[in-house]
Amino acid sequence: xxxxALIIDTNGRVLRRSYSDRFSLRRFAYGACVxxxxxxxxxxxxxxxAGGFNTxxxxxxxxxxxxxMALRGKKFALSRKFWSGxxxxxxxxxxxxxxxxxxxxxxxxxxxxxxxREKRRSDQLWAYWYRFVRHVTNPKDVLERxxxxxxxxxxxxxxx
Length: 160
Prior knowledge:
Elements: E1 2-8, E2 14-18, H1 25-29, H2 44-49, H3 61-71, E3 78-87, H4 93-96, H5 100-115, H6 123-137, H7 139-148
Parallel strand pairs: 1-3
Antiparallel strand pairs: 1-2
């Protein structure tokens, strides 16, 4: 079950709102599905059936866990309530965009795991399509990004 989050700075000031997407393996494979980790909760059986956290993943362990859960048939629900405050820290990965290359490699690996193949040239078109679908189905998140700016790389000015 995922909800939405308030994005806050180190002083507790709300910077913007952020909205989770309805989870989809296919959209996740194409980089067009976001669940807000501090507003996402799951049952113990879903966690254990997925094998728990991959302790070797230091970049996107949450996304990998959700993929593993979904690949094992676990269902995801979505609430439109704000369940957490996600604090951006000056040294945090999200705020600084500090793991661009490892995160890119992670998404390549997740694509192979979900789709069962390497990416093709045509997959870039599908990625654009699924990002468009994400924007259409989650317009509040698009508006927040346009009005208040991105979350990823916010401190260093890297736009994600």
